[in-house]
Design a protein that fits this description.
Blueprint: E1 2-5, H1 9-19, H2 25-43, E2 49-55, E3 60-66, E4 72-77, H3 84-90, E5 95-96, E6 98-103, E7 110-116, E8 125-129, E9 132-133, H4 137-148, E10 153-158, E11 160-161, H5 163-172, E12 180-184, E13 190-191, E14 197-198, H6 204-209
Parallel strand pairs: 1-12, 4-5, 4-6, 4-8, 8-10, 9-11, 10-12
Antiparallel strand pairs: 2-3, 6-7, 13-14
The structure holds uracil.
Uracil binds next to α6.
Length: 212
């Protein structure tokens, strides 16, 4: 598994506002959206393309279009929804599938409560959106879900990650043949006893949707 920390001053600047407890929900949502477009730029560096012939006003030339099957963007409900618009702005012709996962606050394990995905993900590049890679349970289950359906290249985009979550993903997915990449805005210090990332930004879903 590859891990790419998108180390850029604009990303760090936006993350600082997201982390700040004084940032209100509308501002948080807007900044998360902007941050995802920057992360999407890094995450789609290897998106598959095919040659495409066009004519400019001056001469014929060969450009590129996205290859088929189109990339599949999978926000993990609920907090991943806050990343969907930013991602789709960068890849508007991608398709979208949904996975609903919630973690049990006692065991911290992920449980799937909904899914709306194509049955066959053969040869699909998938981009999984989840703002917080904390224990890694949710992302590990989501990646496994996609690989079991045939996805052959998976990139998880997270705003923040914990070292514990990255270690768990690496261990859980060591038997997965498909390439898996994590693109994240930062790797923080650790998880606390409640499974929150420290220093983190709190509960991403609550901060996006204002339920505190
Ligand atoms: N989920 C969140 O929303 N925040 C954390 O810090 C960890 C998991």
């Amino acid at each position: 598994m590859r891990v790419h920390v998108a180390d850029h001053p604009l990303i760090a600047h936006k993350l600082t506002y997201l982390r700040d407890r004084r940032t209100d929900t509308p501002t948080f949502r807007r900044l998360a959206d902007e941050l995802v477009t920057l992360l999407a730029y890094e995450a789609t560096r290897e998106v598959r393309v095919r040659p495409f012939e066009i004519e400019t006003p001056v001469a014929p030339t060969t450009g590129i279009h996205l290859a088929s099957p189109k990339p599949l963007v999978v926000p993990i409900l609920r907090a991943g929804l806050g990343m969907l618009d930013g991602m789709m702005r960068m890849v508007p012709t991608a398709e979208v599938g949904f996975v609903g996962m919630v973690r049990n606050e006692e065991t911290l394990e992920a449980h799937t409560y909904a899914n709306r995905l194509p049955d066959d993900l053969e040869a699909r590049q998938c981009y999984v959106l989840d703002p917080m890679l904390a224990t890694g349970g949710t992302l590990s289950a989501a990646v496994r879900f996609l690989v079991d359906r045939g996805a052959d290249d998976i990139t998880a985009i997270t705003l923040l990650s914990a070292p514990e979550g990255i270690e768990r993903l690496q261990a859980d997915l060591s038997d997965v043949d498909a390439p898996v990449t994590v693109v994240t805005g930062a790797i923080d210090e650790r998880l606390n006893d409640q499974g929150y990332i420290v220093p983190g930004l709190g509960d991403a879903g609550d901060r996006l949707y204002g339920v505190i």
